[in-house]
Amino acid sequence: MTRLLRLGLMSVLALQLGASQPGSVYDFSLNRIDGSKESLSTYRGKVLMIVNVASKCGNTPQYEGLESLFKKYRDQGFVVLGFPANDFGGQEPGSNAQIASYCRATWSVDFPMFEKISVTGDDAHPLYEFLTSRPDPIGGEIEWNFQKFLVGRDGQIVERISPQTQPLDSGLVERIQKLLATKPVLQPGG
Predict the structure, then answer these.
(1) Angle, helix 62-73 to helix 170-180, in steps of 10 degrees
(2) pLDDT tens string 134-169
(3) What are phi and psi of 169, to 5 degrees?
(4) Among 57, 138, 168, 173, which one carries the catalytic annotation?
(5) pTM for the whole thing?
(6) Burial 42-74 (b: 16+ CB within 10 A, else e)
(7) What is the pLDDT of residues 55-73, one digit of tens each?
(8) Which sign, positive or negative, has the C-alpha torsion 30, 15, 124, 136?
(9) Which parts of the chain are beta strand (E)?
(10) Active site residue 57
(11) Torsion over CA of 119, 20, 5 and 117, rounded to 10 degrees?
(12) In this structure, how many other beta carbons lie within 10 angstroms of the beta carbon of residue 146?
């Protein structure tokens, strides 16, 4: 079954069941790399960078820049969310435990990491189906490991960033700073 057909069937089923289509990244729950379940709504009001990562890729040194961004801006409400994926060249072959150990030991990764998922093809995780189904220039197939998505404080995807763009690229850092300068979205009763 093709991805588009599956998305269409999921939409029809959701409407028949009275469920609504996801409106933001907050509508998804995933397992953290340690197996614990977490709703992305936990990050409501934060600026997010969603990244599909891999341990044996030419882009793997980007872990250092991602961690640096996370450390520098987390107190202002910025969070990097890492999603290991083995979709490109078999560059993430390890288990969740192996990936977590490697990321901590080699790159001192402290930002939230999630269990290994697929980010492309017929078995793409629903979060990545949502990300890639957005209108251009955000949507479209994931290009490679370390594709980045910037998400505003309202849970909406504001930009798709090339896998080749380094996390500490001055233009990217400037865009993150602008998003951080926006006020967090207040929830009803909050």
Answers:
(1) 30
(2) 988 999 999 999 999 999 999 999 999 999 999 999
(3) -55, 130
(4) 57
(5) 0.87
(6) ebbbbbbbbbbbbbebebbebbbbbbebbeebe
(7) 999 999 999 999 999 999 9
(8) negative
(9) 29-31, 37-39, 47-53, 78-84, 148-151, 157-161
(10) yes
(11) 20
(12) 28
